[in-house]
């Protein structure tokens, strides 16, 4: 199998780990070549707790994907990150350009983004993403695309995503110890958003709620720009836990009950609908009314939805300028719960749909891949393909890689490189920008090497 344009996404979730191999076909759609799935051991609420168990689960998923694809050998992956430790903040920064009579190019924007990466965070925290929102050129506000404009002062608002160094390092260790290279780390709600949201929805204003096993991830877009991200530290597993305790049954049975008979809306079940659960070791079977089951589920789902809605309110969607016209898109395994869409509409008063990643998949894909369960994995593969195309462009320009530089040195080198490239023809910096992404990946690799 040809290795060009093939990319791998690794979704390390609380309930499952998915390795997905894909490539872009000639129509720009994602062709899934292989998928491996394993039960996630050692991950709690999106954070790696037990590294050894997680490594075993990753290896199992990777082997599954490799055998599913035929003969492709996985070497490098893009990994998703989530968890309670993730927080986001807004930040404004600017650069003063030496020559205001030259057009702003990508090198200037890189210089600005790089500057934000050097922000001093709280002890034990590290920046994961710096996402530009609107730009200002010489005081002229609300510019979406400053490239090609003239100006001396380039300013921008950024959405900065921050995570705990220890959690990021643990993910890096797991990937490395599984015999893989870490190409990039991506925030999971951003990956899911890439897979299930259309550009029109992002423009109109939309909130993506990804209900996973251990966490519920939120991403809000407006005017095509990411506006808010949050990770809520509970998901489908707490519903299973509630059923287990409320009905006095074991976890496996509780999970099956939730999937087969669960509903987020108690009014849908009649009082006389009963399901019989086999007893343990010759004990009498238990009888549970579906009405009671959906009441247990309803109570917890309402809590999760209200938490997500609180984040949407904190973003300020009630203001006219921030209104989310496209409403809410639900995805992730938890979104498959019966009547959840209706409950979300009832609580929030916003239009709601279930998000499937089928829009980006090739026509002959396995129908199972279009399930909300795989939204994050599909998004990570798309991210990996995007990174690869950047890397290809970068390969053409940069001869000598700069891997073993300290963080401060590489930062200053970025500065000198980018200021030097701001003067010549505007076609060159486009390639230069890719190198900064790569350098950041190299820095991350060095950082993980030092941590060993």
Could you give the topology of this structure?
Blueprint: E1 6-12, E2 16-24, E3 30-39, E4 43-44, E5 47-48, H1 51-69, E6 76-81, E7 87-96, H2 106-117, E8 125-137, E9 140-143, E10 153-164, H3 165-177, E11 181-187, H4 188-196, H5 199-204, E12 206-211, E13 216-222, E14 225-232, H6 236-247, H7 251-261, E15 274-277, E16 286-289, H8 290-315, E17 328-331, H9 340-348, E18 352-354, H10 375-397, H11 407-421, H12 427-451
Helix pairs in contact: 1-3, 2-11, 2-12, 4-10, 6-7, 6-8, 8-9, 10-12, 11-12
What can be said about the biggest beta sheet?
5 strands, mixed
Indicate the percent of residues in helices. 25-40%
Envelope shape:
globular
- The tally of strands reads 18
Strand share of the residues? Answer: 25-35%
Question: Roughly how many Å is the radius of gyration?
Answer: 23 Å
Strand order of the largest sheet: 3-2-1-6-11
Going by helix content, strand content and strand pairing, the class is: alpha+beta
Specify the number of helices: 12
Low-confidence stretches: 398-435
CATH topology term of the domain at 87-162 and 398-451: Dna Ligase, domain 1
- The averaged pLDDT comes out at 87
Q: What is the CA–CA distance across the termini?
A: 34 Å
> Strand-and-helix sequence, N→C?
EEEEEHEEHEEEHEHHEEEHHEEHEHEHHH
CATH class of the domain at 87-162 and 398-451: Alpha Beta
């Amino acid at each position: 199998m040809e290795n060009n344009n093939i990319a791998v996404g690794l979704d390390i979730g609380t309930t499952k780990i998915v390795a997905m191999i894909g490539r872009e076909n000639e129509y720009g759609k994602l062709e899934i070549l292989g998928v491996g799935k394993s039960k996630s051991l050692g991950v709690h609420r999106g954070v790696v707790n037990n590294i050894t168990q997680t490594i075993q689960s990753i290896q199992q998923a990777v082997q599954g994907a490799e055998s599913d694809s035929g003969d492709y050998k996985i070497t490098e992956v893009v990994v998703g990150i989530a968890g309670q430790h993730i927080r986001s903040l807004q930040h404004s920064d600017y650069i003063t350009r030496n020559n205001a009579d030259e057009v702003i190019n990508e090198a200037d924007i890189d210089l600005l983004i790089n500057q934000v990466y050097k922000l001093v965070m709280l002890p034990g925290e590290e920046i994961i993403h710096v996402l530009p929102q609107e730009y200002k050129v010489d005081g002229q506000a609300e510019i979406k695309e400053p490239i090609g404009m003239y100006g001396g002062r380039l300013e921008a608002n950024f959405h900065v995503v921050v995570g705990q160094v220890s959690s990021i390092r643990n993910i890096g260790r797991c990937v490395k110890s599984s015999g893989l290279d870490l190409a990039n780390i991506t925030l999971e709600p951003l990956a899911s958003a890439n897979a299930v949201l259309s550009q029109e929805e992002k423009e109109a204003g939309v909130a993506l709620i990804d209900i996973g096993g251990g966490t519920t991830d939120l991403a809000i877009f407006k005017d095509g720009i990411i506006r808010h991200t949050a990770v809520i530290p509970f998901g489908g597993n707490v519903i299973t836990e509630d059923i287990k305790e409320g009905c006095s049954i074991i976890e496996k049975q509780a999970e099956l009950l939730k999937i087969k008979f669960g509903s987020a809306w108690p009014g849908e079940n009649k009082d006389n609908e009963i399901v019989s659960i086999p007893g343990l070791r010759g004990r009498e079977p238990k009888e549970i009314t579906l009405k009671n089951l959906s009441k247990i589920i309803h109570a917890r789902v309402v809590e999760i939805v209200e938490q997500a809605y609180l984040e949407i309110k904190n973003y300020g969607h009630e203001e006219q300028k921030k209104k989310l016209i496209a409403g809410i898109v639900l995805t992730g395994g938890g979104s498959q719960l019966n009547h959840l869409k209706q409950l979300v509409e009832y609580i929030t008063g916003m239009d709601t749909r279930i998000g499937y990643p089928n829009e980006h998949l090739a026509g002959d894909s396995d129908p199972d891949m279009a399930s909300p369960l795989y939204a994050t994995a599909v998004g990570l593969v798309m991210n990996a393909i995007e990174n690869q195309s950047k890397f290809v462009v970068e390969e053409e320009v940069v001869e000598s890689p700069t891997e073993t530089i300290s963080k401060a040195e590489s930062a200053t080198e970025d500065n000198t490189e980018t200021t030097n490239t701001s003067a010549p023809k505007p076609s060159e910096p486009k390639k230069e920008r890719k190198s900064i992404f790569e350098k950041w990946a190299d820095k991350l690799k060095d950082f993980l090497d030092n941590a060993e």
